[in-house]
């Protein structure tokens, strides 16, 4: 087997990218096929059913549950305001009536004769779905959502926190292996997507927050810094719902690691352009990686075809080692031995030989490399 | 010195004459007055040698029937402020030559053959002189025997006799305070899990699952009984659990005050759990003060409503087994807690879980997890260990000293524990005091000749 | 479907459709016993572009057919059954965990009572329990509703109340579920199956609550008819039925696959549970099984025929590795590593493994660290299992005056390491360790078995297949389990109690295929050679306070079975304590590793 499938992160100058914008529950889609949408246009809207508040009337009126229905001043489906009387006991000869006022605003949903419980549903919560990426609506699913398509340049990061946002790309570092520190972030970066080089520090992120940047992207981050930023030790890589006020994406991994030169050069080229980023990461079945999407005005005239088949390991391909002892180093495949090899750990595994730019050669398990898609 | 000589001279030519009384008897001798140690300064102890005539005559009669004790305040400025400089016989300044036995009110009298008197009616810081006279039938008196030196009763700040008490108390207090601080600083204090309290959630949960109420009986005594108070603490926890588990809690009480307290407690617990709507005041009610009327009432509730969990927490008497057996027959989980030793066996046999005495009182610390309570619980435990150790040591030495009667060390240790640690002899052991006394006596004796020489 | 005469079954074909690979095995009746003869593997084809699970099955079966020289797949693309002398199989069975397995939400009244029983039923049936809703779970009703809304379970199991017990609480729970309208994972035309296994008096009211809103309510017997007894069977069977009818039917190709199988398709973990129960019953032993994966760790136990399963979500070796380190804390992980590591770098390594879960350790140090993490993951998973596998709670106690000072609460764990006979390991880090010694050491360190315990690992993760087989042909399942499924690592003899370091812990005398005798001192470990197939009798004389199975200080005689590792004697005491001080800890751990020859460099490595 001269070929082996080793997926890498996608970094491409051109891709037809299609995204599904979906409502959590059925609602109204406000665009039609063929519409051109901007990133922050609302494409669909709906109302989420409000919060549910159970009220135990049987207890508060000291009644058997079955009698509650007869005491209701409101019936199912009626709206009710805050402090409006909800139910009243019959009292003794019309006297000593006990009234219960509603502590919630909403609609009486059900009255249970079994539990004596009334369920009040709060006001509906409006939900709006934005386009997130500028492009063209290519498909609309009635009441569910729509699909937006665009020609984009696309960068997949390895890990991120924070959700969807947009902004202008601004470079903070001058090279792909320069650390992103606090002093590199300037006040004019408000609302922009800051691109760094190597590791970013927690102070830099804090500073970015201060200047109200939309996102901050760099090669790596220290786990300790991430912990400080989040306030807890991240256990499982399922992110995207953090409420940090900024989206943080690392393109390569944790620790001292520079952004891949190709990624850096590409982002540098797009400096000043609008981009959409999402830090949501889910490393499970159905893997989700953070992304940086730069919509293009027109597809590049002649998209250079990669000389290698996507995802195939071949001699001469560039790859990155993604596990110590050569973590983060980039090299070229120089050998693909077919036989499993005994590793230093004592395990037997299929390996490949990689030649680093320095000329040094190393044998690493195929599981520990990542192709750099060209 | 000159003054002393004058006083001696005066004493020598003391002609002891008075008005209506006859001074015929032989006087007692060697009267000494001493401040009583370790008191607040209101006592003086007198001692004397009996009068030579204090004995029965051949015909059974007595010439000395008792002794009278007189007291004089020695004024400052009498030149007697310093007792040490007052040679014997200087009492002349306080007791006049022509002392009138009847006109002067004695501070006390004692019958014959008694050679001591405790004057409990003095003021601290004042100098007193005492005089003792023998008295016989028909107003016969002896001459006054006056104390050699004035005595000043003083207040002691520390009662030496209770010093061991102080040491042990301080020790336990320090331990308790230490553990309270330890717990407050976040130190872990492990309280042995008390099965009965662990079972509260289980019992209440069972009630919820079975759709039956929880019955809580806070005993039959009033709120002034400590067991009832402990029971209410547990009730608070049961109510919290009931609020969480949404179980119905019924509390019949035998005292109106207990009912009020229970209502407050339960309401607070429901409120604390955010379930004020689930609280129903009518479920906590008063039955009757009558012991068996109450018992019958509670039994009625059990039989009619078949509670799935019953708690008995408080003081119980004869009704304990009646209640526990009835609840057992309806298949309830029962948790009892009482400090009534006579009722404990019944509860243990009939209930699922029983809190025994101490456990019952430790419950509040256990339940609240409050560092102060936990710390003091731990401290008290250490105190108990110390007490137990002392007990064991005491028994050991008492036994040993009983066996080896020749060993003076053992006798000393035993004596020390009995008289000093447990008794009131203070910190310094007796044998050491005795040795010290010997030394001082020796020292005094060796100093005597010089003093004599000076005196004459 | 299963009315075959077990004696006539000679060729059995079994597949397990995992989320990435479909594994097939062939079991044949050879020389009077059942043996697993061939196996094949192919990628699972549930997802697009194939979207038909049977393709993967046929591919894996074809691989076996080639190896066995036996035609198994007919021209119509179906598996040939029944068998003739040269082709086909007598019965075809399968398990499935594709598409994330069976995901459930359970609800009950009291978390420790009916809700716990409901969870046990769901876990026992092989599902993943996403959440447990109970009246006393500490959440406000609207939080519970929000949670139900957020989850997308395949089905919901509602229980609560004893028969004749609370009805309104059960209805209350139902009233939370119904308005929340949980959305199923598969399409909107799928009506959410609800299994009601609670108080029989509340059935009518519950039916009413779920009458609207697109629910498919199924009513089975109460799983806790009285608090004193659990009746999980009906609920468990219903879960399996719904799994087949609803959940599987939604997955592409399963309808076809169901037509092929001679026994109902089971969720993979449920099948693993079944085989362990079968083996425990037939051999009359107590078994603990563990399967440590990338994201979760499953622990199964059978003690005195009571089966329990727990899934520790977020305790795993790749996706969840960072969570293991966070939960166990770094110092606890590092105590198993006999050399210094830079903590900051290590934290970054852990996170890098998390975001790139497929990488494998290349250096010995990296391997040792990963195995240290595995120990902690297993330890935590087993701890959770012990807390869950308890006797029933809420049960009335019978007391005598003799119990005055020894009152025990109900709900004590039934997991007893001293009574444990067999510990079975599976999952990458355990079954693919370069040396079996490492697997054995990880198991002993993490599970802390006491007394005499057999250690084994599942050679090629065959347990799911055998689980389904056990429902059709228990004898065949047990034979294959014993002969081909398990690789015996050996027996470990572990002292319980706290032996004094350097003082005699116990004396031993081994007779049989090998003879040896000597003594183990406190804190010492020793490995005696006792190869696979060899057996013997060991006589143990523990010191005072040390328990090896018959009570402290009592002499023990047991028969022991050898394995690829041998006979391990462990005098470290239980609970296992490591020195606090880093340097002392390192040298102690190094001593143990040396004694068991765990990381020998010059030895021939095992195949991966």
Query: What distance separates the N and C termini of chain C?
Result: 39 Å
Average pLDDT metric of chain A: 83
The total count of strands of chain C amounts to 22
The count of helical stretches of chain A stands at: 5
**Quaternary organisation:** heterotrimer
- Provide the structure class of chain C: alpha/beta
From the spread of the alpha carbons, the general shape of chain C counts as globular
Largest interface: A-C, 52 and 55 residues
Radius of gyration of chain C: 25 Å
Q: What tags apply to this protein structure?
A:
heterotrimer, A: 374 residues, Glucose Oxidase, domain 1, 3 domains, 12-stranded mixed β-sheet, 5-stranded antiparallel β-sheet, 5 helices, 28 strands, C: 608 residues, alpha/beta, Nucleotidyltransferase, domain 5, Rossmann fold, 8-stranded mixed β-sheet, 5-stranded mixed β-sheet, 17 helices, disordered C terminus
Describe this entry's structure for a reader.
The complex is a heterotrimer of chains A (374), B (456) and C (608). With 374 residues, chain A is mainly beta. Chain A has five helices and 28 strands. Chain A has three domains: 201 residues, 3-Layer(bba) Sandwich (Glucose Oxidase, domain 1); 70 residues, OB fold (Dihydrolipoamide Acetyltransferase, E2P) (Beta Barrel), CATH 2.40.50; 54 residues. In chain A, the strands form six sheets. In chain A, strands 1, 3, 12, 13, 14, 15, 16, 17, 18, 19, 20 and 21 form a twelve-stranded mixed β-sheet that branches. The two termini of chain A are 22 Å apart. In chain B, strands 1, 4, 5, 7, 8 and 9 form a six-stranded mixed β-sheet that branches. With 456 residues, chain B is an alpha/beta fold. In chain B, 38% of the residues are buried. The N and C termini of chain B lie close together (11 Å). The C terminus of chain B is likely disordered. With 608 residues, chain C is α/β, with parallel strands linked by helices. Chain C has three domains: 93 residues, ATPase, nucleotide binding domain (Nucleotidyltransferase, domain 5); 155 residues, 3-Layer(aba) Sandwich (Rossmann fold), CATH 3.40.50; 292 residues, no CATH class. In chain C, 33% of the residues lie in helices and 24% in strands. In chain C, the strands form four sheets. In chain C, strands 13-12-11-14-15-16-22-19 form an eight-stranded mixed β-sheet, with helices on both faces. In chain C, helix 2 packs across helix 6, helix 8 crosses helix 15 and helix 15 runs antiparallel to helix 16. Classes of the chains: A mainly beta (374), B alpha/beta (456), C alpha/beta (608). Chains in contact: A-B, A-C, B-C. The interface between A and C is large, with 52 and 55 residues.
């Amino acid at each position: 087997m001269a070929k082996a499938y080793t997926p890498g992160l996608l970094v491409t100058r051109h891709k037809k990218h299609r995204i599904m914008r979906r409502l959590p529950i059925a609602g109204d889609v406000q665009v039609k096929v063929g519409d051109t949408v901007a990133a922050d246009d609302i494409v669909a809207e709906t109302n989420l059913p409000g919060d549910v508040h159970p009220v135990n009337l049987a207890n508060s009126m000291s009644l058997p549950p079955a009698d509650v229905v007869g005491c209701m001043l409101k019936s199912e489906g009626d709206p009710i305001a805050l402090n409006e009387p909800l139910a009243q006991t019959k009292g003794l000869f019309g006297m000593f009536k006990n009234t219960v006022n509603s502590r919630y605003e909403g609609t009486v949903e059900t009255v249970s004769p079994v539990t004596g419980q009334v369920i009040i549903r709060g006001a509906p919560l409006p939900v709006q779905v934005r386009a997130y990426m500028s492009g063209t609506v290519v498909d609309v699913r009635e009441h569910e959502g729509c699909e937006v398509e665009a020609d984009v340049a696309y960068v997949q990061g390895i890990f991120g926190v924070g959700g969807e946002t947009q902004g202008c790309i601004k470079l903070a570092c001058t090279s792909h292996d320069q650390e992103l520190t606090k002093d590199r972030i300037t006040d004019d970066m408000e609302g922009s997507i800051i691109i760094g080089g190597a590791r970013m520090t927690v102070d830099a992120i804090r500073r970015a927050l201060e200047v109200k940047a939309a996102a901050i992207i760099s090669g790596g981050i220290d786990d300790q810094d991430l912990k400080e930023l989040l306030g807890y030790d991240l256990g499982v890589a399922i992110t995207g719902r953090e409420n940090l006020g900024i989206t943080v994406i690392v393109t390569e991994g944790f620790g001292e690691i520079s952004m891949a030169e190709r990624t850096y050069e590409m982002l540098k080229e797009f400096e000043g352009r609008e981009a959409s980023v999402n830090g949501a990461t889910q490393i499970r079945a159905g893997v989700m990686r953070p992304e940086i999407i730069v919509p293009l005005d027109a597809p590049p005239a002649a998209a250079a075809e990669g000389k290698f088949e996507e995802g195939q390991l071949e001699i001469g391909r560039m790859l990155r080692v993604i596990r110590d002892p050569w973590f983060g180093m980039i090299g070229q495949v120089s050998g693909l031995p077919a036989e499993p090899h005994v590793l230093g750990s004592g395990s037997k595994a299929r390996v490949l030989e990689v030649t680093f730019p320095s000329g040094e050669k190393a044998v690493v398990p195929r599981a520990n490399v990542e192709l750099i898609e060209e | 010195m000159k003054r002393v000589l004058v006083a001696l001279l005066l004493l020598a030519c003391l002609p002891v004459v008075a008005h209506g009384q006859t001074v015929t008897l032989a006087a007692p001798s060697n009267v000494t007055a001493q401040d009583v140690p370790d008191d607040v300064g209101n006592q003086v102890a007198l001692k004397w040698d009996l009068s030579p005539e204090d004995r029965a005559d051949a015909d059974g009669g007595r010439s000395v029937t008792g002794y009278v004790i007189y007291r004089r305040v020695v004024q400052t400025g009498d030149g007697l402020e310093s007792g040490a400089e007052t040679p014997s016989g200087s009492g002349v300044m306080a007791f006049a030559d022509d002392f009138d036995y009847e006109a002067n009110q004695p501070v006390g009298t004692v019958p014959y053959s008694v050679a001591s008197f405790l004057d409990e009616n003095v003021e601290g810081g004042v100098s007193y002189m005492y005089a003792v006279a023998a008295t016989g039938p028909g107003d016969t008196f002896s001459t006054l025997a006056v104390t050699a030196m004035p005595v000043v009763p003083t207040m002691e700040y520390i009662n030496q006799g209770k010093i061991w008490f102080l040491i042990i108390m301080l020790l336990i207090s320090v331990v308790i305070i230490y553990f309270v601080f330890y717990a407050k600083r976040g130190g872990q204090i492990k309280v042995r899990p008390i099965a009965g309290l662990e079972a509260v959630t289980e019992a209440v949960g069972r009630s919820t699952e079975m759709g039956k109420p929880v019955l809580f009986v806070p005993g039959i005594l009033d709120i002034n009984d400590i067991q009832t108070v402990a029971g209410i603490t547990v009730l608070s926890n049961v109510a919290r659990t009931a609020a969480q588990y949404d179980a119905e809690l019924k509390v019949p009480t035998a005292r109106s005050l207990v009912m009020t307290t229970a209502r407050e407690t339960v309401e607070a617990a429901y409120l604390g759990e955010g379930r004020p709507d689930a609280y129903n005041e009518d479920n906590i009610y008063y039955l009757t003060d009558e012991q068996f009327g109450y018992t019958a009432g509670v039994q009625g509730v059990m039989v009619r409503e078949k509670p799935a969990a019953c708690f008995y927490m408080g003081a119980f008497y004869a009704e304990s087994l009646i209640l526990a057996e009835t609840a057992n027959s309806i298949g309830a989980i029962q948790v009892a807690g009482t400090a009534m030793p006579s009722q404990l066996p019944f509860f243990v046999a009939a209930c699922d879980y029983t809190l025994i005495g101490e456990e019952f009182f430790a419950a509040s610390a256990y339940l609240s997890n409050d560092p102060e309570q936990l710390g003091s619980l731990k401290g008290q435990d250490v105190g108990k260990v110390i007490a137990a150790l002392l007990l064991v040591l005491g028994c050991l030495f008492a036994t040993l000293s009983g066996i080896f009667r020749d060993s003076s060390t053992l006798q000393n240790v035993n004596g020390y524990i009995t008289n000093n640690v447990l008794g009131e002899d203070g910190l310094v052991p007796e044998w050491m005091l005795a040795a010290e006394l010997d030394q001082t006596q020796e020292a005094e004796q060796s100093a005597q000749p010089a003093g004599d020489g000076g005196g004459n | 479907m299963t009315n075959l005469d077990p004696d006539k079954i000679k060729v059995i074909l079994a597949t397990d459709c995992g989320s990435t690979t479909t594994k097939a095995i062939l079991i044949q009746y050879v020389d009077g016993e059942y043996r697993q003869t061939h196996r094949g593997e192919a990628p699972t084809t549930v997802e697009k572009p194939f979207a038909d699970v049977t393709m993967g099955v046929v591919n894996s079966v074809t691989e076996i057919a080639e190896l066995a020289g036996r035609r198994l797949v007919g021209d119509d693309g179906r598996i040939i059954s029944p068998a003739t002398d040269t082709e086909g199989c007598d019965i075809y069975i399968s398990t499935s965990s594709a598409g994330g397995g069976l995901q459930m939400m359970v609800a009950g009244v009291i978390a420790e009572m009916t809700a716990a029983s409901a969870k046990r039923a769901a876990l026992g049936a092989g599902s993943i329990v996403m959440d447990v809703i109970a009246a006393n779970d500490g959440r406000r009703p609207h939080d519970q509703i929000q949670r139900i809304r957020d989850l997308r379970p395949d089905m919901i199991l509602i229980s609560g109340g004893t028969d004749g017990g609370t009805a309104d609480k059960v209805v209350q729970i139902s009233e939370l579920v119904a308005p929340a309208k949980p959305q199923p994972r598969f399409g909107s035309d799928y009506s959410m199956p609800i299994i009601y296994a609670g108080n029989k008096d509340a059935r009518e009211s519950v039916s009413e609550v779920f009458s609207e809103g697109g629910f498919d309510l199924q009513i089975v017997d109460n799983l806790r008819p009285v608090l004193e007894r659990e009746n999980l069977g009906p609920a468990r069977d219903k879960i399996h039925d719904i799994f087949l009818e609803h959940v599987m039917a939604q997955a592409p190709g399963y309808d076809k696959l169901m037509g092929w199988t001679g026994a109902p398709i089971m969720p993979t973990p449920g099948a693993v549970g079944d085989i362990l129960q079968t083996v425990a019953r037939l051999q009359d032993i107590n078994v603990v099984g563990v399967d440590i994966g990338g994201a979760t760790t499953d622990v199964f136990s059978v003690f005195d025929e009571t089966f329990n399963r727990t899934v520790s979500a977020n305790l795993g070796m790749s996706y969840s590795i960072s969570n293991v380190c966070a939960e166990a804390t770094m110092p606890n992980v590092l105590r198993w590593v006999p050399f210094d590591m830079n903590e900051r770098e290590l934290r970054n390594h852990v996170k890098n493994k998390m975001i790139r879960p497929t990488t494998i350790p290349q250096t010995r140090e990296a391997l040792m660290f990963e195995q240290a993490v595995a120990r902690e993951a297993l330890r935590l998973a087993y701890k959770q299992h012990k807390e869950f596998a308890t006797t029933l709670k809420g049960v009335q106690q019978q007391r005598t005056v003799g119990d005055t000072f020894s009152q025990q609460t109900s709900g004590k764990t039934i997991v007893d390491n001293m009574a444990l006979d067999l510990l079975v390991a599976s999952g990458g880090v355990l079954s693919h360790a370069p040396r079996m010694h490492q697997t054995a050491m990880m198991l002993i360190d993490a599970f802390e078995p006491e007394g005499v315990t057999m250690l084994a690992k599942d050679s090629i993760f065959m347990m799911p297949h055998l689980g389904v087989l056990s429902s059709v042909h228990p004898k065949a399942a047990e034979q294959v389990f014993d002969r081909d499924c398990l690789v015996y690592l050996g027996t470990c003899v572990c002292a319980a109690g706290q032996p004094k370091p350097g003082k005699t812990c116990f004396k031993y005398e081994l007779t049989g295929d090998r003879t040896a005798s000597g003594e183990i001192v406190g804190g010492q470990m020793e490995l005696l050679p006792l190869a696979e197939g060899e057996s013997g009798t060991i006589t143990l004389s523990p010191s005072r306070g040390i328990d090896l199975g018959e009570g402290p200080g009592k002499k023990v005689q047991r028969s022991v079975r050898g394995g690829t590792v041998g006979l391990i004697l462990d005098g470290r005491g239980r609970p296992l304590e490591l020195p606090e001080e880093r340097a002392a800890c390192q040298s102690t751990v190094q001593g143990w590793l040396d004694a068991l020859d765990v990381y020998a460099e010059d030895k021939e490595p095992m195949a991966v």
